[in-house]
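Worked Example 4.2. Consider the chain below.
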Amino acid sequence: MKPCLAAIALLLPALTCAAAPIEIRMWRHDTGDAEMAAGRAAVARFNASQSKWKVVMQSMPQATYTGAITAASLVRQLPCVIAIDQPTVPNFAWAGHVRALDDLLPAAAVERLLPGGRGTYRGKLYSVGQFDVVLALFSRRSDLARLGVRIATIGQPYSAQEFHDILVKVKQGGAYRFPLDMNGRSRAEWLSYAFSPWLQSAGADLIDRGSYLRVDGILNSPQAQGVARYYAQLFSERLAERNPADDRAFEQGRALFHYTGSWKADDYDRIFGRDLVVMPPPDFGKGPRIGAASWQWAISRDCRQPEGAAAFLSHMISIEEMAEMSRAAGHVPVSAAAAARTEHYREGGARRIFFEFAQRYAVPRPATPAYPAISAVFEKTMSDLRAGRDPAEALDEAVEAIEHNIARNNGYGFSSKLTAGAQP
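Applying the procedure from the previous section yields the following structure tokens:
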């Protein structure tokens, strides 16, 4: 055999044995076009960055997604990587469907995440995310000036009483039939996400986060009852519309304020331009609070390649990937380093205020497997308050329903012996 042919022959086994990348299956729900395109691009960059792993992404409609992953989990057919809405992460962890990430991800990458970038249960990390959305109070600068209403700031937000007085004054002046739009057509998780932070701002909560077992004295505390009365009063005094016909009151000039999320920023920037003003939610006594966390990534217990799945998650929460997702889809990045690399969320950026809110005000929903039940009960409570039910009665009923659910599920893995220091 000629020398060159011999050399090629010696190389052939090595070439033949060069293993193809190991596939890592990933499921996610369909979202907006920009976010989906950004997600596909992130997967492509990961696959191109190394040769050991190949992530294969499958998406499905959001309406059927949670049912699909629940069904797959019951027969242990989940893919390696799954997108999960962060409030439901503790339930998946308690059921044993996802694995802890503490020993799989670089500590430095996790430590730089804001609370909205982590999903925990019993002090362990089970999911990580790239972005968050942020609650805010939107208004128009020119209308506030015309009505003699000051602009709330981070340094001086509206107190709950001041905000109520403003709404009453504006309504009595005849400028607006319903001065406040609170996304009255939205139900389900919106009610928990938007209004449980009012409880936390008042010094109350949905549950005692020291034990994750006690609700009595927390959700029906005097502070919580004050928030419930305030919420009910907004409707009884016709400051907000009980059953709005549409969700366009603010953009059509029929409401002075819109309490909603940063997902409306693009639309409102386009409609109002420099006249748009973004303010903190009202302060009920302990400072403004907003909900934290959106969809995140977890690794299933069924995954046979957790090392590869962890490599992908590490890629996704890298500073550059987080910044790239923010640039592409407009979401609020969940690390200061990533925000600094974006045009909108860096210091001095046009949307820096949303990142400031996420840093200062964000509180994750309670990290308990009971949260889906808590949220469903709270939704009913808020609907009852809107309809005119007595606040104390509504909250007492909510406490009883939630504590019954926790007892029926043996505390969801929490024990009365656990202390607050052991909790997330």
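The chain has two domains: 22-131+294-364, 135-292+372-408. Residues 391-408 form the longest helix (18 residues). Compare this with Example 4.1 before moving on.
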